[in-house]
Amino acid sequence: MKQVILSRTLPVIYLIMLGLSKYAVVVATVLSIIAPTVARPTELHPGDASDLIINAQDTINGTISASASKTQGIHATNGTALKFTITNNIAGNVNCYINGQDPNKNNAPVMLTPNFLWYYPTASTNADGTPAPVTESVAIPLNAQGLTTTIMIPSYVVSARVWFAVGELQFFTVAGDNGSFSVVQPSQSNPADPSAGINWGFIEFSYTADGGIYANISYVDFVGLPLGMSLTDTSNGVQTALGLKADAVTNVCNDLAAQAVKDSLPWDALCQSINGTVMRVLSPNDYMAANKSSGFETYFDDYVNEVWDNYTSKPLVIDTQNNAGNVSCTVSGDTLQCPDDGINYSKPSTADIFGCNSGPFVTNPTDSSVHQATVPRLCAAFNRGTLLLPGGDVQPSLGADSYYTSGPSNFYSAIVHKYEVDGKGYAFAYDDVNPSGDGENASGTVSSANPSVLGVTVGGPSS
């Protein structure tokens, strides 16, 4: 993968080699520090199947028997078909793609065809070992700007995505052992992905017999084509998650460039562009995962050390917001220790903080209720920079007006929330942590056991 290396100052040694005097060197160095940072988005360079990066995040995995049919009709008699209405607010050719796993066929990967049948991809790989393209027609064209398209989901489906693209996306398959295979989806973090040059985004959903529908808009990984949702249930109740403003991607990128000027960190490199047009913006977690030399490696280190020093001499109170109530934690040696937690907390790295799922923030179903409550509250406090603020010795206790007001913080999250229409849509994993009773709700989810219609707007809210 191409690495993006940012250089914001001309090295002094280079100036000396050019024969400049020591005074010119000093002047040039000072000017390079105070001069505005030029935004340097990550340049996309779409490739082919050989450039795909196969990982768990960008694949749907499963098996399918040799006797399984390639397409399956709508289950009109069992009442499981579900209506999606898609309102297109973008000019140009916009396509929809829906894929997931069929819970009635051992979670076999499926893709929806334009006539609303499930297509079951085959476990194939090219002769040269590269993933094979899905050649079945799976693009569902949307009606023109300002119009609505109706799509029927034939039956229950889990771990599903509804993709929208200004253009055509490319999907692939790669075979495994014993009939297993993966459907390889477009990747936001791979600048050489074959679909990298297309403006796209997706919502995630699962539709089951027991739970009905659960759908989610999330910016934990990236910001892309603005999408919004409205779910109507069979009693005409309505839930909404309106998503981002139409011009959010450009504005988020501009604000990240301004932040890069302030602290000389590569926030602007989170932006991905092709030929000068910004396509999407990665979260710092995804950016760090894709770039070994990201420039953020030690971003939170000094802050973590200050937090550890601060809570060596006084307690950090975690309001578990469950039956455990308030838990008083203190630093002893190199670890933060909380009564009845069962697991001590080592100092988190920057990657641990941005991701909230590694290092001391790993959780398991068998962990104590204290640990399962402490991890999200602690990681949220680090992302929001509230642990050393007045009142920050109780987490959570400070409201949203205190979030991201001190550095270091997850400024990607702060900026994304700035451009959300209704404040909904997670920008890091535990964005739903808030003081009890404050009314904050950053969740971009809608759900119902008795859904009627899921409405989606593409390209920002309808005027």
From TrEMBL:
The chain crosses the membrane at residues 12-35. CDD domains: GH64-GluB-like. It holds the Pfam family Glyco_hydro_64. Residues 442-451 have a biased composition (Polar residues). The keyword Transmembrane helix applies. This is GH64 domain-containing protein. Gene3D superfamilies: Beta-1,3-glucanase, C-terminal domain, Thaumatin. It comes from the Eukaryota. Residues 438-463 are annotated as: Disordered. InterPro entries: Glyco_hydro_64, Glyco_hydro_64_fam, Glyco_hydro_64_N_2, Osmotin/thaumatin-like_sf. Residues 79-460 form the GH64 domain. Keywords: Membrane, Transmembrane, Transmembrane helix.
